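Hello forum,

I keep getting stuck at the same step: I have a sequence, I want structure tokens, and every attempt I make locally crashes halfway through. Rather than fight my setup again tonight, could one of you with a working pipeline run this one for me? It's a single chain of 55 residues.
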Amino acid sequence: MGSGTTAVAATMSNRHWIGFETSPKYFEVANKRLEFIQLGYDLTDYQLNKSSRHL
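Reply #2:
Ran it on my machine without issues. Output:
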């Protein structure tokens, strides 16, 4: 699943998806990206705010 790009795109397009990830690091990255968009934020703001510990 990597960083969750496909899951993010599917979510933003109101599509269902299934993802599998074996790396705890990438699992956390994908979860944070998905949570960010599900909270209604623009994903372009994620890169600007990820160091501010919003999530």
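The helical segments are 5-12, 24-38, 43-49. If your local run keeps crashing, start a new thread with the error log.
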